[in-house]
TrEMBL record:
Top-level taxon of origin: Eukaryota
InterPro entries membership: RNase_H-like, RNase_H-like_dom_plant, RNaseH-like_sf, RNaseH_domain, RNaseH_sf
Protein name: Uncharacterized protein LOC116214484
Organism: Punica granatum (Pomegranate)
CDD domains named in the record: RNase_H_like
Length: 119
């Protein structure tokens, strides 16, 4: 089973919202894309306008904010691009896995859940 989780923080690093969910069985890259999608939707629903998106998967940054040679998931990537256009500014940043302890914890908790949970 694969879980997803993410959190939204303000510019001072204070928690605003977070989510966790079970994705079922997915590849790690699909799980990263699904987690990014849910995070963007949550940020939009919280009326955020400027985002710094931190991901530990450099490949996803390249796919969403660059060019994707992966035809099999083009629709999912295009959907992310359309979501990003709803914000005033989105800055993608690579963050090493060790720096994403809260996000990783939420994803691990999500593997044991039956439903989507926002906190």
């Amino acid at each position: 089973m694969t879980g997803a989780g993410d959190l939204i923080q303000d510019s001072l690093g204070r928690w605003i919202k977070g989510y966790r969910m079970n994705l079922g069985i997915k590849t790690s890259l699909i799980a990263e894309l699904k987690a990014l999608q849910q995070g963007l939707i949550l940020a939009r629903d919280c009326h955020m306008q400027r985002l710094i998106v931190e991901l530990d998967a450099k490949l996803i940054i390249g796919w969403v904010w660059g060019n994707s040679p992966n035809v099999a998931i083009t629709n999912l990537i295009v959907n992310h691009g359309m979501l990003c256009q709803e914000f005033e500014a989105v800055l993608p940043k690579h963050a090493y896995r060790e720096a994403n302890k809260c996000t990783n914890h939420l994803a691990n908790v999500g593997t044991n859940m039956n439903e989507y949970s926002v906190t």
